Amino acid sequence: MKKNRLLICFIFISVLFAACSAKAASSESAYEEKGYATDEMAMVAEAPAFEEVSYDAGAVPSVDVERVVIKNAELSLVVADPLSAVDTISKMADEKGGFVVNSYIYKVTSASGKELPAANVTIRVPAETLDETLTEIKALVEDADVDILSESVSGQDVTSEVTDLQSRLRNLQQAEEQLLEIMDKATDTEDVMAVFQQLTSIRQDIEVLQGQLKYYDESAKLSAVTISLEAKEAVAPISIGGWRPSITLQRAAQALVDGLKFIANALIWIVIFVAPIAVVIGLPIYFIIKASKKRQVEKKKIEKVKEK
To answer: Residue 217: inside a domain, yes or no?
Structure first.
């Protein structure tokens, strides 16, 4: 009888574990689909696991989840010396409590055939210093209007993902505790081995969820900034007596784009907003005028008949 109760309890835990495993597998698949870098995943795997929290089997713990937002930025700059800029950016990251994720230095050939250095560098800095860091990096250029080729800042809200992972983690930890209790009461070797296998699998799923939560936590705390650096000489525009026709061409092209954009926006407003209103108001007026002219024509015909 005691063995039957133990078997029933074991089956219940197995069903609970199967449900949690299915969710964990789908979460892991979605995690891989997001395209997270292999080196970042390795960094997460080597990071210390979250401290486990024990809950009563029948209790539902209340969780106050703070909003988790991952902010990243990208810059493309033209500087006098890309190599010196890489060193400056690396020191900047260290001073702010961040680090260099990777840096890549290569050479490009200018229009005159000269080989010049260029670089790509990615750093991570505390999220609260992201705006300050971007300002300091952009200060490395000589002319902000010309030498800052592009700048973008993105934010990804992962609060729902973190909440879901935390919920699954608590469920798995509770299932693990119940399996440990079953193992303590088990006396048959076969039952002990079966429970041990379930514990091994559930511990693997717990570590996967802890790694995912660790990744989100670190990504939210440390923003990634990717900077592309080109040498000033490599992109120097043609200058004739101080006149830079390429810059004038660039500004003219931008003005053309702005003008076309204004015309396109105006046409959209006319088609979407003005045209329907004109139809609603104009059609009744058109039919009223048409009916009025028709009555006048008929009236003139009647007068002509009377005159005859």
So the answer is: no
- In the numeric block, the tokens 């009461």 are attached to 185
* 90-148: pLDDT as tens digits: 999 999 999 999 999 998 887 667 888 999 999 999 999 999 999 999 999 988 888 89
In a domain, 218, yes or no: no
Q: Are 168 and 286 part of one and the same domain?
A: no
Q: Is 156 helix (H, G, I), strand (E, B) or coil?
A: strand
Strand partners, 116: 108
Return d(Cα 231, Cα 217) in angstroms, integer: 36
Q: Within a domain: residue 174?
A: yes
Structure tokens at 54: 């024990």
* Percent of the chain residues past pLDDT 70, beyond the cut: 72
Q: Is residue 201 part of a domain?
A: yes
Cα–Cα distance, 118 to 107 (Å, whole number): 6
CATH number of the CATH domain containing 164:
1.20.58
Q: Which residues constitute the domain of residue 30?
A: 2-65+159-211
Question: Among 224, 227, 245, 228, which residue's Cα sits nearest to residue 236?
Answer: 245
> Could you tell me which residues come within 8 angstroms of residue 47 by beta carbon, excluding any fewer than 6 positions away?
211, 214, 218
Q: What are the C-alpha distances in Å from 142 to residues 147, 249, 252?
A: 7, 21, 23
Q: What is this structure's pTM? A: 0.52
- How far is the C-alpha of 130 from the C-alpha of 125, rounded, in Å? 7
**Residues 149 and 164 occupy one common structural domain:** no
How far is it, in rounded angstroms, from Cα 188 to Cα 186? Answer: 6
Look at the chain and report how many structural domains it folds into. 3
Mean pLDDT (the chain, rounded): 77
Q: Give residue 48's pLDDT.
A: 38
Residue 238 and residue 93 share a domain: yes
Residue 57 pLDDT more than 50?
no
